[in-house]
Design goal:
- Two copies of one chain form a homodimer.
- With 332 residues, chain A is α/β, with parallel strands linked by helices.
- The first copy, chain A, folds into two domains: 171 residues, NAD(P)-binding Rossmann-like Domain (Rossmann fold, 3-Layer(aba) Sandwich); 141 residues, Dihydrodipicolinate Reductase, domain 2 (2-Layer Sandwich).
- Chain A contains 13 helices and 14 strands.
- In chain A, the strands form three sheets. In chain A, strands 3-2-1-4-5-6-14 form a seven-stranded parallel sheet, sandwiched between helices.
- In chain A, helix 10 links the parallel strand 10 and strand 11.
Chain lengths: 332, 332
């Protein structure tokens, strides 16, 4: 069987994770990388072609990708890049702006259908695995509502989006934001209360900020605490530390989370399901899930299916390296 | 939209759970029950038709089922009943003899394909939800091996099969068996050791036995501890108690379990996923999963798909009451 030729679009943390993940998936081969800054990428990547992102005729011909894994950001890159790429090739992406997923789905569906390609959108661990867990919890425990929490461990989970938001503040040189789940909120769900939460009831936010020389601590603290959406709804703590301390103590991209759902079966018997994951590297976790979906998207395309799909539209067997008989014998 | 007409085959604990579950699934209606002892069932069920199982012409005509949920046992009922029913109607079952699932799948596939029907086999929480979790853990964490444990809570989980095995011993009047996970074994997986376990390394077995008048305690204890497959490989404790104590302290069908998988992403970053469920009533949990699969089987049949399927072959959206747009907005 010929290997699946994967093209990576965008060489940041997730793109680098995809390179590593492909090495562990023997049915795939990295066909090449396309980037807005191919010269920069070529400094570290020498074993596969690196081409400019804006030359589709060149990369389609030279790389012959079966699927493109779009590793750009959800805010600025994917809304434009996704539908463009779906014109040329089957795609997988991790668009994670939850409230805009329906809109993005329809844009991708239209572009992919028109071109006869297949696009899996919004996958990774959340959205992605967590979406799957929310859907099955709701289906298998009638009446249950699924809740998601992040940062259950002592260090919490690094939020890339909130760290980026901190770094946009004038006077902030560097920053990282760790999210912490509120344990009492999780207990309420385990007790079967099916509570109604405001965002601030579920998580707290811990900021580690390195200041530019001469920056105004108080003004920056106020800006952070009042930032709508990002910090205003939450109990937030702001710690000013040195660059050395930030680099030493708060490096890496650890993250973790849980999806919980509780309900009742029959005559008052409790039913509780929990999916918990812990990742030493959040972008590498996302990368692994993207790669498994690249396998699925190629299978869907080979069946002649086109348009946009989410993890909820794809049978689990499509993600697996195992054959049908192996799945029956080892997973069932 | 016309409601899905569900027929229950076999009115034991799971069958009763299906009756309750259908009430919580507004797209379904209980068309009727077929049983080997319809007169017995009619004593408690008066609101739907109850018909003899061996008269397919009668129940097909009177009940007009879209799907039959087969609630018989995996040892004696399903291997024969499954392929027979697949000739008449779409089916869902919880065949749970793991080592014989491939064989049962092929028997059901042949029967269902020949008749142009759709059959979902071996679903519930294990096999079923756990199978799904094993498959996605393996696909999303390359190289990870998935482990299943049961009975993590203080009381452990009631094993129906092992309780039945105890009750076959002469001199045993009644008995219940609780399975306990060995916490140290779970810790090894969480530590990323990917250990190789013998069955006895993962669980212990606790038996509560009521003796017949004049039965030989020592002989029965020996018979239990040496029972191959069921108890011999495990650290097993046997407690002789009165019927009153058994009924008071060890009633109901609680069960719980966990699927864990650990691996590594990129350059030594840990990855750990855990799915945990806790059920006040094991048969009702199974029943709820069966009912969600009844929805899926009818959708597959309406698409013209025939043959046997497992949970690994079905997109999660097929189990859900939500529309495509609701899933995009609320689950993704």
């Amino acid at each position: 069987m010929e290997k699946i030729r994967v093209m990576i679009v965008g060489y940041g943390n997730v793109g680098r994770g995809v390179v590593e993940s492909i090495k562990r998936n023997p049915d795939m081969v990295l066909a090449g990388i396309v980037s807005r800054s191919p010269e920069r990428v070529k400094k570290t990547v020498t074993d596969v072609p690196v081409l400019p992102v804006n030359e589709p005729d060149v990369w389609m011909k030279e790389l012959r990708p079966d699927v493109a894994i779009l590793c750009g950001g959800s805010k600025d890159d994917l809304p434009k890049q996704g539908p463009e790429f779906a014109r040329y090739v089957n795609t997988v992406d991790s668009f994670d702006n939850h409230s805009r997923i329906p809109e993005y789905f329809h844009a991708m569906d239209e572009a992919a259908q028109k071109a006869g390609h297949t696009a899996v959108i919004s996958t990774g661990w959340d959205p992605g695995i967590f979406s799957l867990q929310r859907a099955i919890a709701g289906a298998f425990i009638p009446g249950a509502h699924a809740y998601g929490f992040y940062g259950l461990g002592p260090k919490g989970g690094l939020s890339m989006g909130h760290s980026d938001a901190l770094r946009t503040i004038p006077g902030v040189k560097d920053a990282r934001q760790f999210t912490h789940a509120i344990p009492e909120a999780i207990d309420k769900i385990r007790n079967g209360e099916n509570p109604v939460f405001e965002p601030g009831d579920m998580h707290t936010r811990e900021c580690f900020v390195v200041l530019e020389e001469g920056a105004d601590k108080e003004a920056i603290t106020k800006t952070i605490l009042e930032m709508p959406g990002y910090f205003a709804p939450y109990k937030t703590t702001v710690n000013f530390i040195s660059q050395e301390e930030l680099d030493a103590k708060y490096k890496g991209f650890p993250h973790d989370g849980i999806v919980l759902a509780a309900g009742v079966t029959g005559n008052g018997n409790t039913a509780l399901s929990e999916y918990r994951c812990q990742w030493g590297s959040n972008p590498e976790a996302t990368a692994n899930v993207l790669v498994a979906h690249a396998r699925a998207v190629v299978r869907l395309a080979r069946e002649g299916k086109s348009g946009a799909f989410t993890i909820l539209d794809i049978p689990a067997s499509y993600f697996s390296l195992m054959t049908k008989e192996e799945l029956l014998a080892h997973c069932m």
